[in-house]
Amino acid sequence: MHAKPRRPDDVATYLDRITDPAKRAALEKLRRDILAAAPGAVDCIAWSMPSFRLDGRLLVCYAAAKNHCSLYPMSTGVMADLAEDLAKYDTTKGTIHFQADKTLPAALVKKVVRARIAENKAKGPRRGR
Question: What domains are there in the chain, each with its CATH number?
Fold first, then answer.
């Protein structure tokens, strides 16, 4: 019986575990694009995926899967608001899927991230924690 791999403690560990160089490069580009759209966002791991927090709130997550890479806006509202922009991508209720050789355009990532920032700000200051 094989032991389950340990959950990654940080983003570098997560990315190091991706054996497909194209997927790793696609996620590294996505990470740079997210940071460009959200200066001040900090890396973290949430739900075993690389993620970003801004002002104490979870912003977006991203990951590699067997047959694709994903950006998780973690908002059905943002997914609905950007439905026209996302029409040519495979999506689920809260995920945008893309192929490693066809990365998401930086302008689209910026739109998603900025929409999430606005959504989080509309919730007001974070309580507790």
Answer: 11-117 (3.90.1150.200)
